[in-house]
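Supplementary material to the annual report.
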Amino acid sequence: MAITEKTPLELGPGDTARYAERPLGVFTRPQEGRGWRDWLSTVDHKRIGILYGASAMFFFLVGGVEALLIRLQLAAPEGSVLGADVYNQVYTMHGVTMVFLFIMPLAAAFANYFIPLQIGARDVAFPRLNALSYWIWLSGAIFLNTSWIVGGGGADCGWFCYSTNSGVAFSPSHGVDFYAIGLQILGIASLVSSVNLIVTCLNMRAPGMTLMRMPVLTWMLLITQFLLLFALPVITVALFLLMFDRLFDAQFFNPDAGADPLLWQHLFWIFGHPEVYIIILPAFGVVSEIIPTFSRKPLFGYEFMVFSGIAIGFMGWGVWAHHMFVSGIGPISVAAFSLSTMFIAVPTGVKVLNWLATMWGGKLRFTVAMKFAVATVAMFTIGGLSGVTHSVAPADTQQTDTYYIVAHFHYVIFGGGVLGLFAGLYFWWPKVWGHFLNERLGNWNFWIMLVGFNLTFGPMHILGLQGMSRRIDTYARGYGFEFWNMAATVGSLLIAVSVLIFMWNVVKSKRDAPHLPPPGPDPWDARSLEWSIPSPVPTHNFDTVPQVHGRDEWWHTKYAENDEGQVVRVATTEEAAQTGEATGVHLPSPSFWPLAVAVGLPLIGYGLIFNLWLALVGALLTIASLYSWAMEPVDDPDAAHDHHEEHHEDDDADPDEESDPR
Amino acid sequence: MSAEPLVADHAHEVSDHGHDPHATTTGLSHIKLAMWVFLGSECLLFGGLISTYLLYKTRGNGRTLPTDVFDIPFTSVSSFVLLMSSLTMVLALSAVSRGEAEAGRTWLLATALLGGVFVGGQVYEFTAFVREGVAFTTNPASSAFFTLTGFHGVHVSLGIVMLMSLFVASVKGKLTQRNAETVEIVGLYWHFVDIVWIFIFTVIYLIPAD
Amino acid sequence: MSDTATSEHSEPDTAAEHHDTEHAHPSDWAYVKIAVVLAVITALEVFTYFESVVDWGVALVPSLIFMMIVKFYLVATWFMHLRFDSKLFGRMFTAGLILAVGVYLVTLTVFEFWV
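Predicted assembly:
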């Protein structure tokens, strides 16, 4: 726009002094360093990625314990490990935790860490907003889980929390209040993050990095961010209405007053179906990076991969009511959504075929990462096929609310999402930490997880078709449920063992690292830009911003065709990789304000539930922090440099919107 | 046009030393792109609340509906006030980007005042409705009405806070021609809130309920 | 470098537009004219409320929707500068707008709102 072009916003030399004031005088500006405090104020996208990843793994354990409790309760008929009431809370919180506190933030970890590296940028577009996303997410996650302590138990309405079960009459504890407010806080975090990453992808690509040269991981993550951007407001509306219903006696979901409980179902699933793709697309991206690398072939049909991803993103908006075939939405709606659901299998099938074609004739190397990636494709395909059976409405009528559904979505979410992200952990671990994960332990991890996964969720297909209800807290003897339930419980324990092996692998690999040769910049002979820089990645990412000439830029730096058309190595990794020794690269300065803003939000949440004065305190803290943030320049004026990547006005307007009460 | 090179505008050497704030891939500013992306998201948010109201507008549970107590002439005036605040907003941006700080301040203040009149009108409307028996908890229709318009009112109020912040910054001499983009960003938000009300005014107020 | 960048251009981006059009920024007078048009349309809208003057019949709702769209469009294109700015901004916004209109119309249809 004209204004910005004519009048550059960066500060001229000597202009910085007037921003040097400390508006509230609370914090002096932190400097980037190595102590634990620096993790609180960091704005480095890599550190934020690590924070996301580590927190996500913690909540994986929390959700995993909840899963084990469920399986122990159901191991045998008439189980009594948990009472019916606690059982309701545990399966609800298991779902919420795994979706919102494990898979989404783990995908966010990959997005934060690798989008800038794959497009050749030094950071994201708004580094402080990035920190804000993480801290808001963490405060929301903690808030949600404190309902166990101060809320009289967790939410007990299932992860999709249908009205009228979610009303005060059927769910009198504060669990659902924590659910409604906690998910709104998490939603703000994801919304901020999605805006940030979309702008990063569109606006911070290295020279020559056109959109159709971006690695598929970045593409899939970009599509995920768009889905988040447009899906989150919908559930925010639903949660907002639920919150008003429960806390302020609104009538949105009160059938006695003429309200329609189906409204919740629609709003939830308009969000909820894109959410499925929000979970699965990052894993698709990870797999699309790993399979070409270990097949030593370019990804088959890059354009098809990208456009099928976009197609999934679009079509994901037109299928939501297939979750509601038995809710009484009428035959025309059922038919229409049934049809659209069948269609959405097409782009997904395109992806599966492309992965297979990539491997076809390739020089396959079955590292642990590759095994996880291949397993992802296989297991997701099973989940996808059982999904197609749901699109047939008469069959779905039989399957709804049985264990068949539970089996289906675990094959998709665990078999697709979690295995895919584990593939990514093994693949990028040396890039992030500068040492490999142990392959031998990794193999144990992989095989036990794969067997345990199938043993847990495979039998649920049978249980479901036999008629075992989902969410039932126990079952009587003699229905034929005993054997497969026990099998599933054994399987879940195997998954737990495999996760413990993974954790042991993390510890052991770090301990062994000093005695092993370092992986170097490019241990897997990979294809995208993040492998052209040292491992672990230096703070400034790239010594020189790369110039991109085509897809798989880094691969083409190393390899070229000779006269006979054979691919030959033209440069060693050592020759081609950057050294990471550049100095004086200017980076955005750390800030405590994102953390301070994030602390205010759960206070508002507790306040809405328990005492409105506390909400006022939280709101004041948030607003004061936002103002301090707006007054704080992106770059520390005390740091010596003459360059401003951004300008303090950037955040002037922006954070104010995030304080919208939703 | 689509064949235009993406990066050709910035074909100059990328310095090792960070980048020029305008050397973005698309040539567009980060913050403005972010604002538009955010506004795209807001459409889904207001859409959900508007749909909720539309679904519930006739569900009175035997009690008074919001549509029974609408005061169209009054709401028309306040809608008009908000609409005109968009004009003053764009004039503020125009003045600031020409470097006319004084005029910029005047228009910013005018915009905030018009916004204040609108919010004041809404408060009056709400109290009048409650007096006439349509409170937040009366029926699904009233809950949906107050949530939608209240949520919009909160957006307007936030906009006023931002406008006043800009006004104060201008008084302190911090709002100059070179950061006119800040005014533009706040302006985008403000106009968005205005077009949401254009929608609400027609769909909620003017189109008859039955 | 620019030829390497053009070699693949199945690109949704339209970075270049805004450089072409930014100079055509409107004057304050143009903004005032737009505001007058908006005011006139609003007056017409309010006019429909007083049914005793003119009976709009079945044309009422379509006319109101039409006037709303015109106002919406004028504010977005002129006051929000979509007319003069990069098309990318408009695309981001209309993506959300179209999605919102689409999913919520379908939702209301499933509720048989129009019947």
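Residues 84-119 of chain A form the longest helix (36 residues).
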